[in-house]
Sequence to fold (315 residues):
Amino acid sequence: MSHVDKFAHIAALRPSNKRAIPRVASDDASLEHDRLAQMLGAQVRRNHYGEHLCLQQWHATPEICTPDARSLAFLLPQTPDADQLLATAIDPARWLFLDTETTGLAGGTGTYPFLVGIAWWDAGGLQVEQFFMRDLDEEHSILLELSERMAERPVLVTFNGKSFDWPLLETRYRMTRSISATAPAVHLDLLHPARRIWRLRLGSVRLKELERHVLDDGGRALEWSRDDDIDSSLIPQMYFDYLRGGAVEPVAGVIRHNQMDLRGLAALAGKILSLFDSGNGLPDAMSHETCDPVDLFGVSRILLRGGNAARARAS
Fold:
């Protein structure tokens, strides 16, 4: 366990109240909270369990991804209820993209999801909503908000969410002993198909690398840039510094990082589904003239795994 993760574990075991990790004098803390909200254009959201900071932004890109049924089927588990899962997931209006920023990567009871970012297709573009814990005692408020959003959109789309984000959130829900997690009806974790398609060529399939080499490679440029993005390994310490009265500016960088991850995730969904477009023959995105042969090999492996040997050979 890294030093940051050990620090997260120790911090999480302290009583969850405003005095657990003192920031500054209470009046100054309120001013800092207000300054952060003004800087981000965020609002204070209140519910039965308290308050948290909420930021909403709509983006015209990436544009809405409308999945083809046969293409989407390749991303679903081959189980007896596959047809039911497909019927649920075929409507993009039911998709909810999710990405969290946490106090460490160890998971378990010592890790807090201090920023929960979600997004969904709306008006042809992507609506992003982010819930930020200004202090540790705002966790219940965030979890309630997330549970309500997931009840509205039961198809969860993540990047490594089956191994990290969702198990962590389930743990946090259990620890509240009062808020029930709304389990997704379908969970599309795009890390796994991304590995099969691009790992042989790229080595790293981090979302940041996929944006650079796949989503922004020879086609329409992305309308966001990672040039001034922060190193994700520094995010836990940035949050701890903020809790102890540090500057609010690094938090704005973390929130922007989360926004780009959500937009990248939505763009990746469209890219992967385009590779499996079930039109006549190979679609343009999979043509041998425009698609790297190594990528085609990765696509063919998924097609074969999904029981479509004919298309696998054609690719």
Observations:
- The chain has twelve helices and seven strands.
- Residues 6-25, 278-289, 309-315 have pLDDT under 50 and may be disordered.
- The chain has two domains: 3-278, 282-315.
